[in-house]
Amino acid sequence: MPDTDASSAAGLPLSRYKVLDLSIARAGPVAVRLLADWGADVTRVDPPSSRESVTGRRRGSDEQNLHRNKRSVCLDLKTPRGAEVLRRLIARSDVVVENFRADVKERLGLGYEQLRRLNPRIILASISGFGQDGPYRDRPGVDQIVQGMCGLSSVTGEPGTDPMRVGIAISDTTAGMFLGQGILLALLHREHTGEGQWVHTSLIEAMLNKLDFQGARYTVDGEVARQQGNAHPTLAPMGTYRARDGLVNIAATTDRMWAGLCEALDARALLAHPDYREAASRIAHRAQLDADINGLTSRFDTADLVARLNPAGVPCGPLYDIGQAFEDAQVRHLGMTRPAAHPVLGDIALLRSPINLSAFAHPPRFHLAGPDPGEHSEALLQELGYDARAIEAMRAEGAVA
What we know:
43% helix, Rossmann fold, six-stranded parallel β-sheet, single chain, elongated, formyl-coa transferase, domain 3, alpha/beta, 11 strands, 401 residues
């Protein structure tokens, strides 16, 4: 593997690309983070009014994790000078990422046709709540709303209870990951054709796709999936069971796994039970099967179940809280965090990219902590060809902070 400099992104696979991050909230920054972690030179445009109000938040764990490996310039895009700087940034960029409403995008000159006149090779990457056209194009869309509208909440929770949101911002992060993939596809296409394009997705599109087999059960079979709690919707036994000291997840869905479970826990009577001999029958008698397994597993500690079942080919694992998850031996072995040096906060541990490439080691450190808004304004303006007098004039006008 080639060595990578801990203080820069040089040598990483995306280091030749410049990305302009105009996005807010979470989904857009997630897409940009994917590129920044693999070396893209990312300039984030923050509004001047946020310099003081957001600095505290930007130094918080969430925004540090979202905006590491980026530089920040503060621009007032409504001023002529701010718009001029933006045009220069666009002209030198490979990718522009935004999540403005359609009317705001056009007013700021950020429609794809407008950008293409400044930079014919530009890739515009857009993210929205409900899509770039259609009856809901102007609706504000946030994770909570989309979780409810895509049907995810309807299949989350225990049967017979109210719909329940998933405990993470899953539509934001999913849409961001899909947009990041779309950007990479567009870059590959440009390598062959020299042409840029408009890449876009939305929270609702991402989550409908994420429904996967439950979605296909409706589109192909007309079946509407319902809440299953911790049980698998179509396989048994698979779910959460009682251990002597808590709860444990077990999946024994094939004949081989089922036999392995019964043998590892000395429950050959269950293996011989006529209702449990075939997979279809185990599913048909799921309620009684789960009760019998609970009676069996509750005699063992979680650690004992994990130690017995996994070697028998039966997936089994504890139910951790987030702290326990990060302290797990395998997670610590994987090294899921890397330090970033912040001038005020010191070294902070942030989550690394989950992508592993055999030709590129993960850098031992993030090359930049999340910047305060405008932290790199002067350096970036100098890169764009502005001298000290011009920069001072823009600061005096309020175009730059």
